[in-house]
Batch of 3 targets.
Target 1
Amino acid sequence: MSTKTPRAHSASSFPNNQQSLSASESVRELLDSLSIEQRCNQELLASLGFALRSFTNLNRFLELVPVVASRLVGIKGALLVPFQTDGRIWRDQIQVLPLDQNQELLRQIASLEAGLNIGFGTDPGQLVALDSLVQRHMAKSIIYSTSVVARGKQRGRLYVFDLQDSVSLSEVHCRHLQLVADLAGVAIENDQILQEIRRHERVDRQLSTGAEIQAQLLPDRCPVIEGVELAARCRPAFQVGGDYYDFIFTRPELVGKNREKGRWALVIGDVMGKGVPAGLLMTMLRGMLRAEVLSGLPPDRILHDLNQLALVDLEHSHRFVTLFYSDFDPRTRRLRYANAAHNPPLLWRAEQRSVSRLDAPGLLIGLQFDANYGCGSIILQPGDVLLYYTDGVTEAPGIAGDRFDEVRLIKTLEDSCRSGLDAQAILNKLFSRLDRFVGVDHQLEDDASMVLLKVNDELMLPTI
């Protein structure tokens, strides 16, 4: 009996032990399976993160997005529809899996007329229409979709689907897919930032080249003219500016000392606008003016002819030019001048110890075809100082928000002239005062140029 009872007990309890053992193995197998799936998902996401760090080709990265998305949730189909910076569908970067079964879907999305419009990706109504288009293609299949977003901007849509079966996704699957969409958004954003940087680099190189050319066109030094000192400087607001000044010898056949005693044209001008367009127009104007100076005509006739020559090109560019033209004869110290609506130069008379404006009537260059210009003439005396400048000087904004204006310029010029400084020292003091007013760390809003002529203090006329 004693031996049977245990046998009977053992026989009756064996099925329960077997069931407990089977349940434990099933739990272990389930846990092992989940662990393997988790490690697999981690590896997939890690590979996508590595690709994001390593790939320089956006297309190669975006090709991985549907592959990783479909494997993360165990679904055969995935679609990525990225948007360009302006919101249009980025047709060249649409990615789909499997490709052979979704050619018609690709064609429909690529030919979607609304997708060619700027702002498509930021219009909620259009996104709903895009989702509906994808849903119609999938017939009765349930589709999961999410937005590809970077820095708060819509960068695309990500879909997963199965053409054969309905899709059922867990909360973990949804989080994984959103993570994939976020990585795709970062990749698109990074690529667009990189393209923008490259574009700026190209523009910077072009501006640097333009600035070099412009610097070569502006005089690199002032000429030697008997009886006077000259100083000049241009400070562009951008790398390429629209300010222009020049010293042009009216009789290029003369050389040596004869050039110092000959008549010279002194010119300053300003093309309305900044940057490359203004710089190009300034270059064109310089060539025209230099050809006109050789005609030997008086200043008013030179501005008249220059206006007619430049009018067509200026009309097409919707820009105008202010220009003050003068010529100086060192043998007589006579300065003739004409003005095309430029800031009148400031004249310091040493004898009167006061500043006045040197002006003549005239319209902008490029405003009216048959414009006429007045012509003035003065004799400069020993110690006199003549300052040519552009409006970038007087219109320069200060730290407090006011402008440098003509009053400050006149005051600084008067103080400098009374101190008996030479031409270069006066010019340096003027720019130093302007810099203090604007602020050391502030950029000028417009080009600022100044040309200064000072008659030597000798009482005798230059030798003939």
Target 2
Amino acid sequence: MSRPGNAAARVAQARGTFLGTRSRLRAFLSHAAGTRISPRYRGVRWITALILILFAMQLLTGTLLSLYYHPDPASAHESTHFVIDSVPAGWLVRSIHAWSAELLLVLVVAHLLAVFLRRAYARPREYQWVVGVLLLVLVIGFRFTGRLLPWDEVGHGATLAGLAALEQVPILGDVAARWLKGGEAFGAKSLGRFYTTHALILPWLVVFYVTVHLYLLRRHGLQGGDR
């Protein structure tokens, strides 16, 4: 009669063999387990780590808020106040979501400024610089699309001003503005477009570009010994 420990070991070995022969997951996990991260985070490394933490907070708090938010002009404002007034710790989650978004924008700008001043955008890191600039555009898009979601007067005013500025951007500006408005004019349909862009399209784009940026960072590093 086999012991429980031996049976569990055989099951684990079979599972590992199955994964190893049918995917690269086992090799990836082995490589990740063998990677050691230096505890001496200095300069841009600190900013990069904080950016990743803040983005994770955005995803978590945004998911929690989406459980109660209604992207409909008739109930968007009420659902926002319901989160603040009635949901346990809802005010805290919304505050963390709002303030972490502001800090995220500040840190991305600081990261790009530090890279620019150190001239770490030079070859072979030019693609890292381009991806970083695109991430800044996406973070600004997060902030812009999220401002309308409470469906209040302040959000309306800021959104109309932002759309007018976006339409002045050559080539893609008018296309992006028309997409966000849901047509030629700003109206009730616009809220659904803003919510879809904010909660579905932009997060996936950020995840993709962050993955590319981290891959390039691992491949080329930062100028000056990753300081």
Target 3
Amino acid sequence: MPQSFLPYGIIIATCASIIASQALISGSFTLISEAMRLNLWPKIKINYPSIMRGQIFVPSTNFILFAGTILVTLIFRESANMEAAYGLAITLTMLMTTLLFTAYLRLKRVNSFWTILYLVIFLTIELSFLIANLVKFFHGGYVTLFIAGLIMFIMFVWFFGRKIRNRFVDFERLKDYLPLINELSHDTTVPKFATHLVYLTSANNAMQIESKVIYSILQQRPKRADIYWFVHVDVLESPHTMEYSIKFLHDKNIVRVDFRLGFKVEQKINYYFRKVIEEMIQSGEIDVYSRYESLNKNKVIGDFRFVVIEKMISYENKLVFMDKFIMYFFDYLKILSTSEKKSFGLDSSNVLLEKFPILIKGSNVKLKRVPSSNFDYSNIIDTDN
């Protein structure tokens, strides 16, 4: 570039960088958002600055792009050193676009002749580019493959980790347990856990409930409450919808609340739930006051406890090596992702976090019982245990 044209060249290059960066940022946000909807990415916070669902801001992704930009700048130093990484990235992008578009043509049942012709022509060109660019791998191309491989690894672990975990999560017929839960509610021999006990449920059908919820109420530690609440949240395509419905499942001590919230509405379930309670009190639908005599006569509203149940793989499971490998990293990704307690806006002061063991495949162990008089203690190494 001539020295006299250098200032103009810098301005043009700066404008091009701004345009390219905006494309990268918006593209990254969209890809992460869609990956979350397809259960290919851990749940993270998404902000919606406008009423358009496609206009989003992902704080964590924005920070990763910021850190990645600095890291790449420190690694390559000069733009000339980035040619290998950039060239390989463009070639791989073109190749993946061709394969995806071919899959789309097959999905739309386009004539096989035109689909194959398109694939042969573009693959010939792009594979030639790829072979030519492979020599650049050791000159910076490895950075492209490392970043792509890391993203693909996270998606792989999250997708198959969820499949392993959800494969053995069952739903129960709530109708079969309503009488038992009602009896527990009136069983004074069991210490009262809370006046109002609230569970979040993913069951779309009001007469179904996760087995983990039944396990929590009846088995892990019997939880007696005056009123049991099952809360379900649906996220809609509209931006500002805020609706709810109520269904009494057994008299007025087992209640289901369904929230229908727009994608732009922040899920402050704790706050919304209390607003629902206030409206129910005003309409006289339910008595939510404390059942303790001294508090009830003074019209004091009973305490509320939310229970969030986290599924975990039981230690009794015997998984194959690949499943163990996936679940090992899946547990770490869960730590980095947004917790249910935080994503639903629940106050930490009244939330109980429980672990629900998932038994996938137990060991077939056969223990032989012998009379205690015949038991040989001579081979015991550590008598303290």
